[in-house]
Specification:
- There is one protein chain.
- The protein has about 375 residues and is of the alpha/beta class.
- The chain has two domains: about 240 residues, Vaccinia Virus protein VP39 (Rossmann fold), CATH 3.40.50.150; about 50 residues, no CATH class.
- It contains nine helices and 14 strands.
- The strands form two sheets. A twelve-stranded mixed beta sheet has the order 1-11-14-10-9-6-7-8-5-4-3-2. It has a two-stranded antiparallel sheet with strand order 12-13.
- Strand 9, helix 7 and strand 10 form a beta-alpha-beta unit.
- Bound molecules: S-adenosylmethionine and zinc ion.
- Zinc ion binds next to loops.
Length: about 375
């Protein structure tokens, strides 16, 4: 693989209850107190109550399409999608998607091709408005996460491309190239339902992309890789490795994968790996992020795209520029100096021919 690196976070009773802390600890235990505190902070951050239930997103979908696009969606499903189990062609009849080879059944609902079992939920199901607002407001988060990144991405757009946006969310931050066909792949039903910019919305996962091999000119993962998580670090690694392998399968010779991601500082990455499983047990599905080091991203790409040319683009920001570290807390601003994460883009271009390229080279540039 040729690597080209462009360098561009009491009650008073008269008797003083000396053992308050110990009593609490006995009653609840250290981890329970920690769990309650973490849950309180996290729920507040995401503006949800600890008792909120995730509503299966299919309940908010209607059984009927309203805008007359269903025939176009059925045609697009048959043209672009394959069975997620057997990779055979699919047939659509009256909104039902089926595979004659293995019996897989999906469906078209509200013009979305539902290729997962439909009862899965993503932690993003109730973050749709926040994410959409974060993009449309074009505030500090936009400037640090999107502005230069979108400008870079648009350099790789060409008219008529088949574009796959993995983890597209409810709104595309970029202008689509003319004549392109954009497929949005999302496990979050409400997000893909809200996204009216994609030509074909697919409810599914990057770990099992229901597309034909070598059918995509440009695949984009805009800050979605760090959200591909399971219950343990090991599962996180497996999911992302599968996603990369799938991306390697669907991209055409000469096609590109552009990944925009947040790379942790070394100490952050070390502590994250050490503590993630424990914190996940405390927070459950609310811990839905795992940041990958540049080294692990390069390794994932090396395996999935062994002959590709890689560019790593490093987005530098002034150390004293302040911005909100969390989309959900726009009022909280910290200087870049204290943010243990860096914005990076990785671009793998697969060779037109499968001939082995020369030894890796490394170059650097700031954007
Ligand atoms: C931070 S949002 C980014 C959304 C959008 N790309 C943007 O830039 O606004 C991360 C997205 O990744 C999606 N995601 C999580 N796990 C995924 C998976 N296994 N496959 C594809 N997308 C996934 C989430 O549902 C969420 O919409
Ligand atoms: Zn099948």
């Amino acid at each position: 693989m040729s690597v080209k690196c462009l360098r561009e976070d009491r009650r008073h009773t008269g008797v003083r209850p000396l053992k308050t802390r110990e009593t609490n600890r006995e009653k609840h235990g250290f981890w329970e107190v920690l769990r309650a505190a973490a849950r309180l902070c996290y729920n507040r951050a995401w503006e949800i109550s600890a008792n909120d239930e995730f509503v299966p997103w299919t309940k908010i979908m209607s059984d009927h399409s309203h805008d007359g696009r269903e025939a176009g969606t059925a045609h697009a499903v048959e043209k672009y999608l394959v069975c997620p189990r057997s990779r055979h062609a699919l047939v659509v009849r009256e909104g039902a998607i089926s595979c004659a080879s293995c019996g897989f059944k999906g469906r078209i609902q509200d013009n979305i091709a539902v290729m997962s079992d439909g009862n899965q939920f993503s932690f993003f199901d109730d973050k749709v408005k926040l994410m959409r607002r974060g993009i449309l407001d074009r505030g500090a988060n936009w400037r640090i996460s999107f502005e230069r990144q979108v400008a870079l991405l648009q350099r790789y757009f060409e008219p008529g491309q088949v574009i796959l946006d993995v983890g597209c969310g409810p709104h595309l931050p970029y202008e689509r190239p003319p004549g392109a066909f954009v497929i949005g792949l999302e496990p979050s039903g409400p997000s893909i339902l809200d996204n009216r910019q994609v030509d074909l919305g697919v409810c599914g996962t990057a770990a099992n992309i229901p597309l034909y091999a070598h059918s995509v000119d440009l695949a984009i993962a805009f800050y979605s890789i760090h959200h591909m998580v399971g219950r343990t670090v090991r599962e996180n690694d497996e999911i992302v490795a599968k996603a990369f392998s799938e991306l390697g399968r669907v991209i055409k010779p000469g096609g590109c994968l552009l990944v925009f991601e947040i790379a942790p500082w070394k100490m952050f990455a070390f502590l994250q790996r050490l503590l993630w499983n424990q914190v996940r047990r405390l927070l459950g599905v609310k811990l839905d992020m795992y940041f990958r080091s540049v080294k692990s991203m390069l390794e994932l790409g090396r395996v999935a795209f062994p002959d590709a040319v890689l560019e790593v683009i490093d987005f530098k920001y002034p150390l004293f520029a302040t911005f909100p570290p969390a989309l959900s807390l726009p009022w909280l601003r910290i200087p870049k100096l204290f943010y243990p994460l860096e914005m990076r883009a990785y671009k793998w271009r697969s060779p037109v021919l499968s001939a082995k390229t020369s030894a890796p080279t490394l170059e650097g540039t700031h954007v």
